[in-house]
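Incident review: delayed structure delivery

Summary: a single-chain prediction request sat in the queue longer than the usual turnaround. Root cause was a stuck worker, restarted by the on-call engineer. No data loss occurred. The affected request and its eventual output are reproduced below so the record is complete for anyone auditing the incident later.

Affected input:
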Amino acid sequence: MLKLEQKYFPFKKVVLTVNDDRELEFTSSSLSNSTTTSIPIDNLTSRPTTYRHLKVVTISAFLLSTALALISLYIMITTDDSEDAGAKALVAFLVFGTFSFVSMVKLQGAYKNLLIFNDRRTSEGVIFLSPSKPSKKAVEEFVDELERKIKAIEYSNKLSKNEKVSIYLRHLEFLASEKVITEDELNTIVERLRSRGSASVVPIYN
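Output delivered after worker restart:
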């Protein structure tokens, strides 16, 4: 079994598990809730894409508000209490200090560096990973082994018809769970499959 666990500040945890039945189980949990999604691994691209994004506005707001808070603090310290400038500096310090603290909290997500496994058909992002949690080596090993597993079942001629049927059914169940197809459409295709017998593969697309 292939497994990767990643923890995020403050209480979020993501666990990815690839079972022997060729499905990736993605579990995301926090203090308040937990969700689990199963995805057939051959729905995914074999290699993830790299996504990097820097929120310049958030960083600039933090630096500017911190600088103004420090200037206000300096004025407040070096000014006599009887002077009106000291009181104004105190107010400014409280305002900019609060803004600086809020910006500092948001800095947690100001820089995003992600590995994204996309849906093979739609190219939309499906699985998002940090490239360094719990370590860069652990993530690289997980990605390399997942790539090997995906390539090993890419509808090669080595698969029997029954194995292909099993894979198609998992795809259909996943599409139904994601509301891409309706339950009626799923049942219709499954019935056609059963009526033709396990020796035949029913194509999903015309």
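Verification: Residues 1-48+119-154 form one domain.
Action items: add queue-age alerting; document worker restart procedure.
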